[in-house]
Amino acid sequence: MPPLKQTSGTRVYRGVTHESATGSGRDVLTPSPVDGAQMGIFGKDIGSDITPSMRDRSITQQAGALVSIVVPSKNKTKDLSRLLETLEQQTVRPFEIIVVASGPTGDLDLIAARYNAVVAARDCGMSEARNIGASLATGRYLLFLDSDMLLSPSVVEECLLCSEAGFDPVIIPEISVGRGFWAKCKQLEKECYLGDDAVESARFFGASLFRQLGGYDSELLAGEDMDMTLRARSNGARVGRARSMIYHNEGHLTLAGDVTKKFRYGRTLKRYAAKQPAAFRRQRRLLRPAFLRNLRTISSEPLVGAGLIFLKSCELFAYAVGMVWSE
Predict the structure, then answer these.
(1) Please, which residues bridge with residue 176 across strands?
(2) Which secondary-structure segment (H or E) carries 19?
(3) Which of 59, 131, 67 is nearest to 100 (CA)?
(4) How far from each other are the two terminal CA atoms of the chain, in whole angstroms?
(5) Cα dist. 203→116, 169, 220, 240 in Å?
(6) Structural domains of the chain sorted by starting position, each given as residue range(s) with its CATH number in brackets
(7) Most buried in the list 40, 101, 246, 303, measured by CB within 10 Å?
């Protein structure tokens, strides 16, 4: 899916403007007039013409006090500060923010205090950190975020509207931003995945459903989000979808760094493949249906498109080596 609008050096998606600051060595992410609150939400089980009315905002504002946001963090204080700032700008304010810190907290305590967030220090992986945060949460709803993410202003509100309409859990579409050629390839990949149930996973859960499902599989380093979503579907859950976006800041993405991470993830993929064989078969394809559906978008940027195919080839190879290495 191409950006809604593109100008020189600037891409405008739903809710946030991504501007590459030439020569500054950083990314600038600022609110855009194209906000998801204007666009409403849609669920997979209802027609795209059905949108919960914004006249229910007063009900949703009260429901906001029931949301707990869980954020695992590993010394990414700068990223965390940016995330917490976007939470401050939500049209519906969350009730509580729980940061599960792995390793020394350092300045994290000061940053968390500035935004009234609670810090729980635990030496654990991502999935276990999410489960720990959920166990400490008091909210009726749980929203799981990574510290290097940024939210459009109406993400929490739209998730609550989905929930009020009978959907639980809720998928929030994600776009990657970052610096360098490989970050552009990753951004193009994520654009292709928008609206694809075979790839996108839920991040917003009713607390009761989350506990009924037993939380995230703490033995998975990769696929834990999809595993959780598929278990919810098999449990009869109606999965909703917000339109406001999450922006995943890849930073300066390098090929070596990305491949190394995928190798590490591959070491637990056998468990994921055993739990979700059909999904694993779909996801291990190089030429995914999402790429074929968005062939025009990919071909419009041939160099980046070629880089995307090469990047995915390297990632699949790294996953395979990681799986073999785990034996």
Answers:
(1) 248
(2) strand 16-21
(3) 131
(4) 39
(5) 22, 7, 16, 11
(6) 39-325 (3.90.550.10)
(7) 101
**Cβ neighbourhood burial of 235 (10 Å; 0-12, 13-18, 19+):** exposed
pTM reported for the whole predicted model:
0.80
d(CA 70, CA 312): 30
Length of the chain: 327
- Amino acid sitting at position 177: V
Instruction: Dump pLDDT digits (tens) for 195-205.
Output: 888 889 999 99
Structure tokens, 241 = 């979808």
> What digits encode the pLDDT tens for the residues 106-134?
678 888 888 888 888 888 888 999 999 99
CA distance readout (Å), 270 to 131, 152, 281, 320: 22, 35, 12, 10
d(CA 294, CA 279): 20
- The C-alpha atoms of residue 47 and residue 1 are separated, in whole angstroms, by 20
C-alpha to C-alpha distances, 193 to 6, 103, 196, 216, 293, nearest whole angstrom:
19, 33, 5, 22, 10
Question: What pairs with residue 165 in β-bridges?
Answer: none
